[in-house]
Structure formats: C-alpha cells, structure tokens
Specification:
mainly beta, Jelly Rolls, 6 strands, 3% helix
Amino acid sequence: MGSYVTVTSMLGAEAQQLHAYQEGLFGDPAFDANVPPYSITLVIPLVGLNPTTSSTLFFPGSHRDHALADAVTGTAPDLDLDPGDAILFDSRITHGGMANRSAAPRPIVYCTYHRAWYRDV
C-alpha cells in the first residue's frame, strides 16, 4: 500500500478541480500510453453516494490520452453506492470530486496500491 487517506467533501462543496494521482513514468506520452498500471486506487465511501451527495467524475481512457478528459467524456459510477462499496481505478485516470449538494459531509477513504518498485514521492 502506497498511501491511505480520507477525503471529506463538506456540505455545499463545489466540484473539485480535475486531476490525476500519477503521471506517465517516462515523459513520452506515446510510450507512457502503453505502460500497464503501476498504481491502483481503491475508493470506499463512508456514506451513501447518491444524486444529492454525488460521487467522483472519471474520464475513461485519460490514463492513456489526457485529451480525453473533457466535460463531454466524464462519467460517474453508479450513484447509488452504499457505505463500504468499492471503486477501483488506475491512478493515472483524470478525475475530480463532484459537488456535494447534501446537508452533510461526504467522507471517502482512498487506498492506493503500487507495484513494489514504484514510490510516489
């Protein structure tokens, strides 16, 4: 396990800026697009995720091509997740927390697992 954190979207929080946890290893987009995953993130919601509390917006394929991270291609996982459900994603995928429109905080646990040779500095 490379990291273990909790992220809490407070009530009324706006959408998070889009980001990726990891970038390509070699600085060559054409080469990096073909590298298999070396870091996987596990997301565990501690409250139910629904249209009011919302979730995280993901951009499928953006781990291979960052140009795919635009408002048109974003998708959220099923917005009917229970506490303790799980979402797994390649840590290079562009993503961002969506606005929390509920009257309560939205805590989520993130566990990132890396290959033995990789260190996130």
